[in-house]
Amino acid sequence: MRKGADLGMKAFADTSLLCALYRRQDNSDEADALVTRLDEPLCISSLVAFEFRQSIRLQVFRFSKDRKQGFSRSEAERMLGKLELNLTSGAVEILAVDWGDVHSLAERFSARHTMGKGHRTLDVLHVATALHAGLKSFLTFDENQAALARAEGLTAKP
Fold this sequence. Notes:
This protein is an alpha/beta fold and about 160 residues long. The protein has one domain (about 10-155): 3-Layer(aba) Sandwich (Rossmann fold), CATH 3.40.50.1010. It is about 60% helix and about 10% strand. A five-stranded parallel sheet has the order 3-2-1-4-5. α1 (about 15-20) crosses α3 and α3 (about 45-65) packs antiparallel against α4.
């Protein structure tokens, strides 16, 4: 992960962005370009890290049952290793948060938005975490999650 000086701020990444960074997808070039413009580490929560790791492990299970689904253990190990390298180097930072405060924020966001917009639990928690941490920018390829982030005052990219 290279760093530049365009965005000039810390940004919170959700799991969809991590997936695009660590495994080639249609939106990988866009994810790489966003991260390259950051001059601060990419911020995630321990929950995003767990969700990303869990999703990779699930894909290995799916691949073991049907070779047309998921991906191989070697691909998973490459992706997990790349994340660990970026955590160790400081290119990706796991935020320290007070989960009680995050849950309180998430409850308020859920009450305001979920019945009308259909937000998923983890999406609400990720937006609440970014706001709890005082971040202004939220990076996601999930349009519904981006709408929630914008509704709560974050700048959502791409």
